[in-house]
Amino acid sequence: MSWKNYLSDRQATYLEDFRAFLSIPSVSAQPAHSQDVQRAAAWLAERFKRAGFLQAEVLPTAGHPVVLAEYCPYPDRPTVLFYGHYDVQPADNPERWNSPPFEPTIVDGRIVARGASDMKGQVMAFLLAAEALIATGALGLNLKALIEGEEEIGSPHLPEFIERNKERLRCDMIINGDSGQLSETTPLLSLGVRGICGLEFDLTGPSHDLHSGSWGGQVQNPLHAMAELVASLHKPDGSVAVKGFYDDVEPLSPELREWYKKIPWDEEEMKRKLGVPAFYGEAGYTPWERITGRPTLEVNGMWGGYTGPGGMTVIPSTAHAKITCRLVPHQDPDRIVALVKAHLEEHLPKGVRLEVRVKEAGAPAFRMRADHPVAQAAKEVLTELYGVPPVETMFGGSVPILSTLKKLLGHDPVSFGFGLEDELIHSPNEFFRLSSFEKGQRGYAMLLLQLAK
Amino acid sequence: MSWKNYLSDRQATYLEDFRAFLSIPSVSAQPAHSQDVQRAAAWLAERFKRAGFLQAEVLPTAGHPVVLAEYCPYPDRPTVLFYGHYDVQPADNPERWNSPPFEPTIVDGRIVARGASDMKGQVMAFLLAAEALIATGALGLNLKALIEGEEEIGSPHLPEFIERNKERLRCDMIINGDSGQLSETTPLLSLGVRGICGLEFDLTGPSHDLHSGSWGGQVQNPLHAMAELVASLHKPDGSVAVKGFYDDVEPLSPELREWYKKIPWDEEEMKRKLGVPAFYGEAGYTPWERITGRPTLEVNGMWGGYTGPGGMTVIPSTAHAKITCRLVPHQDPDRIVALVKAHLEEHLPKGVRLEVRVKEAGAPAFRMRADHPVAQAAKEVLTELYGVPPVETMFGGSVPILSTLKKLLGHDPVSFGFGLEDELIHSPNEFFRLSSFEKGQRGYAMLLLQLAK
């Protein structure tokens, strides 16, 4: 029997399996659900075994456990490692859900449940693809699946887990399933994401709020100092003014700039979509270069003083700001945070004190070559699956797991998943298309076969 | 009988009158108390009549009524108008009061009740002083008392009331009783306050919050624009950068600068009191000159983006700020607001839209000459009452009623009251010293006698 027939014969059963997986509220962020997280891990390991994996275990971490499944019967063939997660976002505000978040409901060809798109749907699709290939004897390589339970809380224990199990996780290629396509008709090949680091800081002037009539003019207003300090972080040309910020940034190569030009960008449509009167950014770069090829510094929050209705004539004691930077390859998150901190200290206006709090460790950027063999294989599969070649692009956001996997396991992870942008992940009524569930099974099978060639 | 004996014979009864007045919860801000406000006005008019005033009426406004009392038997003698208010601040949070706010309680020589210091205590002191002088035949001038019921909500209907009753309020001298002394042992002569005007504004970039990873670098961040715009409002020397802001400001005369030098200022003590690492203000001016002699522009609130715990990688759609300016003589509040608005428009960073909301009408500054005859009389009385001459100063805050009275009635109001800074006005457990109540009666009597000379 062909693997394709094997899959199509079993779609009704597979959908029941998917429902069962979605019914377990594996919310990693909420201690009340820690038993459910354990239960989901156990269910998944068991299902991997049923799929024909020779080993599938629930392995402990200092937090939620990792599911590690292995099918490695071929000592001389390459090994592919699949990364995914079985934990889900919280599903508070049940009144905003049209059906209970952990009672999967099918509406118009979509399965509605928390975690459907992010990412139990892709984990199941991969598992079922592997099952079909194993069952029909078509799989010509070794497989490992590393499915963690803490992605939605920032994967705090995953690096340590990988370090500790490095030998066992050894592989030749990595697929990241926590990913998606551009639309139902256009596939996507992501070749990179930016890194991230962040800090927050307070400026304190007087020890308590002062009356702005009695004291205005004689003490530094922390809000004025904040404005001055934040304004000092950028130059008039839109670039970041922090000394050393661009030190490790490689200029965009002519080849890369040519490549960027091919990414579609309709300025008027984007303006409408974002609702901005005009675009604005670092001078000398195109939109996609700015978003993915250049580092940025953004204030995500800034506040102080009276913010309620009406007026209150106060000079506040303190002002606050939160900053994150997005990084490109070779920029070290710790070094960038240190440079920003030094800038704040050096440009501190008179009359206020500065306190900086660095956020938990950042993540470096990830970028891979378009001619990487796994990327090329993914491209071929996507072209066949969708009938058109994938849009090759990079993203401005950050996926710390990519650089973590590369650093610890030595290979570029290729993102290959089937989520779509409109599937309300992290929101009420999250859903996954049944067509994507089925297409995902075929897609993963085709990719594994391609990689086995 | 001397007026002094008349007063001292009646202190027990007067304290009961004061208690009765304080027991009426005349909270102007709360509709639930509007009957109480009416009741306080009626009680007060009746008490003025009992004090010997020939007329005392409760006169309507579009809001709470005004009490107008008149004792004008001397066609050839001057007329003094006393300004005060009988409304009080709300007294919410009863659990923070040691005794019920409208059940006056005497503790350690202090009467604790909402409105005791601000300013039923001074209104009663003036009324009782007048009673004693009328009863003993000592008063050699005409008296008018204008006691409003909306001071704590910004006197919205008082200007219109004064306009409408200009003839009836005609006078030769004005005393403002809503005032205080420097301490129990040091009197104060206030010769001016700054004016005020304000506005608030929003900056809007994208029509909704954006992910700072996906879009950071390509759209203007309203928080960056806000920082840049707010920073543009001041020059490096601490002066206001708004074009035309100082156009109508008279340079400080050498005489005034000499006068300023006499106001006590202990820099180290003030630093400790305000808890600032250093003072900061417009270059070239002394502390008191900055606070009372020069105009300022202060941001009272500024906010946007994520302000909760942890991080959130957002580029907010909007950023907000509230601004007030303190004005010196000749600066017109409306013109200054228009100049600030023009500055914001002119310096608006790229990629954001501006919306400005002007607050309700501002107030011009008030300043009077130290050699004004009523000020001189007040100075003599205070010197006699306290045994030391008053500290002559101006204040940085704003008392809109002063410029309103001057503009509509044509005379400089002299502030002469007996509140002290520590009496918790506008806070739970407001109190008034019984010694101030008694000293106030004598003080007002002495001032009226001095003015009759």
UniProtKB/TrEMBL annotation, chains A, B:
Claim: tRNA-binding is one of the keywords in the record: no
Gene3D superfamilies: 3.30.70.360, Zn peptidases (3.40.630.10)
Organism: Meiothermus luteus
UniProt entry keywords in alphabetical sequence: Hydrolase, Metal-binding, Protease
Alphabetical list of InterPro entries matching this protein: Bact_exopeptidase_dim_dom, Cyt/Met_Dipeptidase, Peptidase_M20, Peptidase_M20_dimer
NCBIfam families: PRK07907.1, PRK08201.1, PRK09104.1
Molecular function terms from GO: metal ion binding; peptidase activity; succinyl-diaminopimelate desuccinylase activity
Name assigned to this protein: Succinyl-diaminopimelate desuccinylase
Domain Peptidase M20 dimerisation, first and last residues per copy: 192-351
Keyword Protease: yes
Taxonomic lineage from the root: Bacteria, Thermotogati, Deinococcota, Deinococci, Thermales
Enzyme class of the recorded protein, top EC level: hydrolase
Known EC number: 3.5.1.18
UniProt record, GO biological process: proteolysis
